[in-house]
Task: structure prediction
Amino acid sequence: MSELSLEGHLHRRCGGHYALAVEEVTIRLSGMTARVDRAMYKCDKCGDRQHTVEQREDAEREAILTMRSQHSLLTGKEIRHFRESVGLNTAQLGELLHGLPKGIVEGWEKGRYLQSPAVDAMLRSLSDVEERERRATRAGFVLPPLPGTVAADTSHSSDDELNPSAPEPDPVGSGVQP
Ligand SMILES: [Zn+2]
Result:
């Protein structure tokens, strides 16, 4: 499914035609800003500018990349690796971060959303197990055992719902959409 190109299209209001062009824009996200080049279609007669959804999304991704490197924020991959290394699903990680919806966590991991520097610092602090436990207690749930560790003395060797080799554990509970 590709977006309709406006290249060469007639601008009925003025009789001009649209051509691909680039503009420099400032994008603001999570209290940060980045200057990026954004593609658009510009009318050669009146200068009217039109953006496709793809052009907007590309510019936003570019801004996210720029902000991540400017503010040394964790990448989506790093967040995901961390989350999986401590056996949390996206809903649980969100819970540890003041109850953020899992969709936000998923957005970070996919590079669609960007965490603020404050949340980034909070994420990093979670590599400390005591910090994780503190936050889990506050959020009202018990941390799952770390992947690969055998739960100390639980007598039931039943279904391991946290099998780390399982593909994408479906987040339980939560899922309250704002
Ligand atoms: Zn025009």
